[in-house]
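Journal club side-thread
Mid-discussion, someone asked how the predicted structure for our own chain would compare to the paper's figures. Pasting it here so we can look after the session.
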Amino acid sequence: MTVLLGVDTGGTYTDAVLIRDEKEVIASAKSLTTRADLAIGVGGAIRAVLEQSGCAAAEVSMAALSTTLATNALVEGQGGRVALIYVGFSGADLDRHGLRDALKGDPALILAGGHNHAGAEACALDVDALRAFLETDSAGVSGFAVASVFATRNPAHELEVARIIAEMTQAPVTCSHQLSAKLNGPKRAVTAVLNARLIGMIDRLIGRAQDVLVELGVTAPMMVVRGDGALMSAAQARERPIETILSGPAASIVGARWMTGVENALVSDIGGTTTDVALIRDGKPAIDPAGARVGDFRTMVEAVAMRTTGLGGDSQVHLQSSGLQGGVTLGPRRVVPVSLIAAEAPEVVHAALDKQLNAPVVGEYDGRFVRAVIGLPAVGLGEREQALLGRIGTQVHPLGAILRTRMEQGALSRLLDRGLVQVAGVTPSDASHVLGWVQAWDAEAAEKALTLFARRRVGSGEGLAPDAETLARMIVDQLTEQTSLTLLESAFAEEAADFPLPPADLARHVLTQRGLASHRGILSLDLAVNFDVVGLGASAPCYYPAVGERLKCRMLLPEHAGVANAIGAVVGRITMRRSGSVTAPAEGKFRVHLDSAPQDFSASQEALQVLEQALGDQARAAAEAAGAEDIHIHVTRDIRMAEVEAREVFVEAMLTVEASGRPRVAKG
């Protein structure tokens, strides 16, 4: 008998599940995610699931971890301070593909160097400028990103820059060629910057999770889910945390397929921070050929084709005051629900809410609270941020008692971006408490907070809602509407037929909306989602039946929908992919671009065979290092030819080698 342990660390909850012989769930449990020390939440979930099942820790044959922390961090704009070394590019290239936005004001050095399209050195590397930059600008940097022009054709300058950075700073370094074999330097640079920003966060998560397993007596190896749903070792995830982007959502797709057996369906997973929608077609999740897109960033990381939006049970509720009726919108930032922070600091929260309820006018910050995330490094902060963080200290405070000037709002936003503080406010989770659907935290505090929010004025001068319950239903209705739009966008994006408008426009088009409402007039309009929708997430049973009715589709809510990510973490396969290219810099010359150095051959087939062998060795070694057994190799060749003077001429070839196998587990 084999007992598999799956753990998923989300923005609000950490889930754990035990599966026997890959066939049945024998126990599942949840524990609040603890940002300051992730081990507390991970340990709480694992202890609870072991107690429920009666299994001993030593019986666990394999542990696997999925996480939404990387996804959430990018959606919310969080992560550590980074520095980019941009080799051979110009300053204008910083504005391509959102690279400047990805840097968020962090330092960047444009350095002379780089190679040409054939892999030959275009300019000597300016080592002196690099060393001078590291001496003056490396303080407080948690990770470096290095991107050199045509590094996928010759990575020598990226590797030399990484060596010097490691020598001078001992900080982790991400080289762009190690994340993607494709051209497009600015896009690779974005991916490298995001990877560097996530390194500290994911390293802490994996390290603390491993500490907990050891403390509890689990001796089995730990795996981590990648963004394409495959597994990799913990060591590999620490080096390339960007590959855990969409890890949790990808695991949920694998879990949905395992629980329902669906061949064709949309999967919608609502968490605390995001809603993730993907398509299962012919029993397999689609892989996004353009790279994972999260929030505003398009990366070069292979991941499931998924639309991730900042919409979840803990999304911030915003007042929409325009128009006579007004309304609410949700997200994209996650906040701590008032009901949750009240459960942790009841005296402070209730005293503040009662005082605000007795005031004649609703204040700008009423119903909102702030606390610091204790234990995270607070380096590289400005004076205003340091002063604000010192004022917050270790306690929960009403937000209005902390923000004293308008300028401090910017400082608070920067602290939020660094993940150093958390703000609490009204969320759909609070609305669910008011409606009596959930009783996990402090429902009385939720009702007080919604009562305050309902008093806010809209365009007519009237209050937004007459009472907390009416507002709660408005919030849930808005969640239904935004979820429905997200599903419609995904359906239009995956539709085989070519529509002449973007998916977001099609989802909101008047004909789409009238079709959903079954318009009857001179025209008869009907529209429905033609695939089943699998609703996942602990709150899916509360919110998703209404979504199914809105889209006129069958909504599947599996028994273990609330721990789908944790299930998917332990039923996946280990898959490692390595890609490379062969070019033709001159007639009769075929150049293989390897990590060591380019190699030339006189025959295209010889060059392709050498590249295939090198990539196969790398992929197999990576799969074995991850703990795979019974490894199978699959090769994909994309060869571009051109017709010149009535004959076929080799232009370029891209090879991808995939090594896949089951994780090695100890037999009970």
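Post-session note: DSSP finds 21 helices and 29 strands in the chain.
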